Amino acid sequence: MDTGSTPPTADFESAFPSLIDCEPSDSDVERWQREARELLRLAMERTSRIVKQLGPSRQGLRTHLANLQLAYDYLADLNEESDDGRTPSKSLNLGLSQRQDIAKMVRDRRMSLGLSVLALAQRVGLSEGTIKNLESPRKPITRTTLLRLAAAAELGLQFDDILFDQPSPDQGEPMNCFIAPGFNPVQMVIELGEKLNSVGGLIEQTNVYLDHQSAAAYLKLANQLDYVAAFRDPVPMQKIADVILESTGRAGIDVIALGSGDAREEVRLVQHLIAASHPPDLRLYLLDVSQPLLLTGFIHAAETLADQYGVAYFAMQGNFHHLPRYTQLNYTPTRSHRRRVATIFGGTMANLEQEGQFFRHSLSGLAPGDIAVVYAQIAVAPPNQPDVILRLEPALQKPMSAAHKNWLSDPIYRHCKEVTDVELHLELNTSCPVPGSYALEAIATVKLTGRRQKVFSMHRWRKYDPQLLSEHLKTMGWDTLALLPSGSSPKNQASVLVLRKRNTA
Predict the structure, then answer these.
(1) Which of 28, 133, 231, 247 could be 24's S-S partner, Cβ–Cβ 3.0 to 4.6 Å?
(2) Is the predicted pLDDT of residue 6 greater than 60, yes or no?
(3) What pLDDT band is residue 479 in, cutting at 50, 70 and 90?
(4) Residue 12 is inside which H or E element, if any?
(5) Contact 200/454 with Cβ under 8 angstroms?
(6) pTM here?
(7) 3-state secondary structure 135-190
């Protein structure tokens, strides 16, 4: 890999004094960096395999893995130049207590050696201000700073000492589940009951996944063998991963799974991204409104990815319509050397009320260059041909399945007072905001005591013309990188759109 810049000689002399006897040529520096990165990569791969084999005794090796990653990333940083021509250095994600421990250790060892702040700075090739900030500590600490300090043998600082405060076995694993700010699922259930006891109307889509019974019914539906074979298995994950990696380059990737459900598709995508990344640097955030679905997806992610080097996974219970509020997922990607990939698999896209507004507003926290992956079922005919749709749409050719009826009627039976019966059927709605799309609405006729009844729209499934959907989202600031076919037969065709947010400045 070409480096693009030559690091100053002082950098090498302060960190590796025994390696440089004369001024190196550009080609020498490039070759040394390539060879060092390859050696580090091989070391990480072999150590990762050992970690998997050792099981409970792998804790110390995980620290060594992190140390290897730190050194690898530093060498990779030497290939990047900032706007002012200086080599960037990534800030480490360290908590205040870790920075305080580092500050105390450096200060204590400096003073024990009788070194002033200026003398230490000169010895390790850093500025006096950098050392002062580190010992305060007032600012984030960069990889370069720690590597320079670790290279000063007289300080006796090791990565294990200052970076990685691993939990002891009795402490358990680090916390990796969050409740999104302002999210109140109990209140949502109360509001669902109030809506179902009103005179009728439209039920917001997230309400049919909220409680445990609804979640269980949905999971049973989504994991039927014929449904999995028709819609889930054919999703072209390898091609999606290839497009993402071509766009993101060497940046770390945060996959934000919107409406993750059981996370089967999202975990498959992460596995493909890992396989094609050397070394992998991925974080998977599962975001769902339903606690039971979120837990199911998180367990699957943990079972699949637990021993996979270079990937972390988190669960967040929240509403993806409020994504800009969730500060954990909001950062400046170019400064963090990371890219976000928002995934919208399954029926999530088809459940949105206003697709364009969702991309414009709910995804406003994503930055130019970030990615969105959207699964969309394909319409059988344009919405201005309702007769053709009624004749060709498979879902309209037969009564609604028992599994669908149980899933959508059970919340009514649980929350609606005086209900005696629920009848469900599908209706065609051709008045949809995205050109070329139509919706199949699940209409529930709720019969009450005293021969009363009311009607609710319980759920909606949208189908699209992929090209027209692509053009619509382009007006919202999203360019299409790829339109990838999916589906196992002409009756269940779908498309996956890989989109990149455009810089509108």
Answers:
(1) 28
(2) no
(3) very high
(4) helix 9-15
(5) yes
(6) 0.67
(7) HCCCCCCEHHHHHHHHHCHHHCCCHHHHCCCCCCHHHCCCCCEEECCCCCHHHHHH
